[in-house]
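pasting for ref. prot 1 ->
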Amino acid sequence: MPVVQSATESPEPASSAPTPPSGALDRYFKISERGSTLPREIRGGVATFFTMAYILVLNPIILASATDMTGAHLDSAQLVTATALTAGLTTLLMGVVGNVPIGLAAGLGVNTIVALQLAPKMTWPDAMGMVVLAGFAIMLLVATGLRERVMNAVPLGLRKAIAIGIGLFITLVGLVDSGFVSRIPDAAHTTVPLQLGGNGHLLGFPVLVFVVGLLLTLILVIRKVPGAILISIAVSTVLAVVIDKFADVPALKWGLTVPTWPGNPVAAPDFGLVGKVSLFGGFEKVGVLTGVLFVFTVLMSCFFDAMGTILGVADEAHLLDEKGDLPGINRILMVDGIATAAGGAASASANTCFVESTAGVGEGARTGFASIVTGLLFVVALFLTPLATMVPAQAATPALVTVGFLILANSIKEIDWADYTIAIPAFLTIVMMPFTYSITNGIGFGFIAFCVLRLAAGRGRGVPAPMYVVAAVFAFYYLMPAFGLL
């Protein structure tokens, strides 16, 4: 996830003075110029892969657990293939074109938008088509130079609030999918929507696996162990396999995936979901305005997460110039836009930059050659689908809770809570996402509140024009039912 703080610490620059390049590879990637070496780049690429590889488990679980408007599920094995394929190819592209040590894969947060906001209102190809359109929009913004200008139009406090809201939303999804929290049936005639466990108590081996996995993940994170999330998923999966083998656990208690060891852990990838996209079918299902807002929501999540991640990783790798700018950033942003569209085209959801790439920077990576290594490892993972699809939700969802915490811890301190014209919109953005189970609502109410409060405080002239336009679109969207338009 692009806003997650790495568990590794950034070292000092590898060298105070660059050494002369020693070959074509060195010259192209500027390895010596950036004070690095080929072994450091290889180690960094491997470290980044192992801190990102959990997405091969989590992305299929999030997407396959949802249904579209026809009740159709996406196949888990095909999702693993799509996730690994797009992560590998887009990370390779970032290495060759962007020349920065940044890995890309399906973004946590964006996949929940696709699974829980888009898919229920249309078919899966329609939903993935909207992701592709968001990627095209990002590429257009980069090509016209508007991406950085639009980025500057949204106040920092709201950008951070969007990240925090998505973090809390992901946390709630993780708690529910694991069975640690469950919905109280409407027949209970209570206004309380959720409860602990299945009946107000924590019972059953699957919940035990989740609790053990969560504690292990948090311990590894505070100990700054590289690959903490992946290690926890692996250990929890082994525990779940052992429990399922020797204890009488009904399959329904595990949920989507029963932890059974596959007969053959290696299998040919299944590319059945690649290309299953309808670019404009979603607009026929939900209407033009709602469709545009859905595309906008995907764009916003990818847009701001990637920008912050790119600058954060570049700063830790000492790639920023004296003005704090990243040379060649437009090439990097264009690759990110391509990755968004490619993820949708393969039905893996939008691919975006991962801040877990700082693990590779911590190992000494400074160039795109590290991304080449990471990308090749994701390509190898294409043939290990059976291993990824044996992981139950209870072993993978602790990562969602941990990611939610790290997002909040990394962003909440950067909101100016003393300025109510930004603090209140930020608060609404944060709470509306989990409380309405809608990322779109969080962004909409936050933008509207910001514009209204700034006008009420006599500070309306300081609000950029794009903010008023977006807030007006959201306001009209919410008023459509009152006008009989929805």
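and prot 2 ->
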Amino acid sequence: MSRKFHNRMPGTVLLAAIVFPFSFAGAQAVSLQEQLTAQYKLVKMGSDTGGYSVVEKGTLLAIQKGGILAVPYGDQNVLSNKYEGGTIHAPTGLSLMGRKSIMGKFGKEQTTHLFAVGDKVYPMKIDVNVGKDTVTLGIVACDTCNKTDPPTYNKANVVFQFPKGSLANAAAGGVEDTIGQVLTISSDDAQQGQGGQQGGDQGGQQQAGQQQAGQDQGQQQPAEQPQAEPASIDKGMTTDQVQAAMGKPDKIVNLGTKTIYYYKDMKVIFMSGKVSDVQ
């Protein structure tokens, strides 16, 4: 028993030494894959008699570097564009010629499309390969965003090449920063994601702005002057007091001890210099 146990131990240790490193590397790759998948929602595509269409939208991305070569969604193959050292490396002419000759055998015309800066796309797959230090992002055009008519849903792969041995311990944030140099989350998508909350905030800000504008307008307008007390004539008032209240009369008639002040709509009668009647 003791001899058999000792004979097995070296093989067991060797097996553990072989298995565990690959297990750890796989766990690291899965972890990074999960984090990137959580950051970039993948689009769901479908087809019917009318052709291909977007069934469920993914995270809307805006292309920051032109030169990504794509093919229509109906093509069974996908072109791989490599991003390394800050530059997009599209497939070579020889590989494209080979593809055209293959497609020609099936009686199909091979068409390609270059994505331009500002074009909107959806992610359709994410693949992390720690062994090759690559992250591949499959993208498909948002034809409604790009106003492409008729729709083609051009697709392509963008392979992000990282320095050798760096991806095994790379943080998801750093990988996302590199992806963002080519494909950044569109501001349109961010606004849609915030949805009603942003709309409510804008509505509240607009209402507050209107209230503030009203307050400012009120401050700018001069304060209304209080209305003057209506002029009144009392019996016994002197001629000076009546003129102070009513202003100068239109006409004055002196009849000795009797004086009459004529105004537009009335006359004031004075006896011995004091009001005796108003008509």
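The chain has a mean pLDDT of 78.
The chain has two domains: 2-193, 239-278.
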